[in-house]
Amino acid sequence: MTEQSDPSIRPGETAVPLPDRTDAGVYFIGRIRTPWPTRGECPRRGDTANGPICTIEVDERWLDALTGIETHPRLQVLYWMHEARRDLVRQTPRGSEPIGTFALRSPVRPNPIASSVVVLVERSGVILRVRGLDCLDGTPLIDLKPDRGGTAAA
Ligand SMILES: C[S@@+](CC[C@H](N)C(=O)[O-])C[C@H]1O[C@@H](n2cnc3c(N)ncnc32)[C@H](O)[C@@H]1O
Q1: DSSP 8-state class, residue 21
Q2: In 52-134, where does DSSP find H-type helix?
Q3: In what helix (H) or strand (E) does residue 32 lie, and over which residues does it extend?
Q4: pTM of the model
Q5: In the chain, fewer beta carbons within 10 Å around the N or the C end?
């Protein structure tokens, strides 16, 4: 589909039909609380030095899975961009030429998985306070991992 038949597509953008079914299931393990209620208010990219402190609320079921996480000063956070469309294969970011979805970090992608490295400020039970996020308030959380800062991951 192109912009001629869908007014929500910008000039130069292309959509494809999505597959009939998904191939895997995902458990949302919590929610991310941020100061941003709309996409327009979110930063394009999180700022670990000067961004606001955001809260990751992990569901109580996963409490044991957090054991030891506070020993890691930086974490990779994976989250699900629940308000993003999934069918665009070519996109026109503001002021740019059309470019392929897999050449962008746009939230619009077949599987709207986002990742950010954050600084862990404090842990209290299942609540993590972090700096460096860029997502909407209420964004579903998929995973947390220690950030190895470019060294081989264990
Ligand atoms: C450019 S993406 C980058 C995400 C992540 N840091 C990455 O690199 O994978 C960040 C933008 O996604 C949009 N966004 C944030 N939360 C979203 C959500 N839950 N659903 C859809 N779009 C979202 C906002 O416009 C935000 O500025």
Answers
A1: S
A2: none
A3: strand 30-33
A4: 0.94
A5: C
User: Count of alpha carbons within 13 Å of 129, Cβ hemisphere only?
Assistant: 6
Residue 133 CA to ligand 1 center (angstroms) comes to 9
Examine residue 2 and state whether it is found in any structural domain, yes or no.
no
Cross-strand pairs, 56? 32, 128
The Cα–Cα gap between 117 and 131 comes to 9
To the nearest 10°, report the CA torsion of 81, 82, 88, 90.
Answer: -20
pLDDT digits (tens, 9 = 90+) for 106-130: 999 999 999 999 999 999 999 999 9
Does 53 fall in a domain? yes
pLDDT digits 0-9 by tens, 19-68: 999 999 999 999 999 999 999 999 999 999 999 999 999 999 999 999 99
Domain assignment present for 96: yes
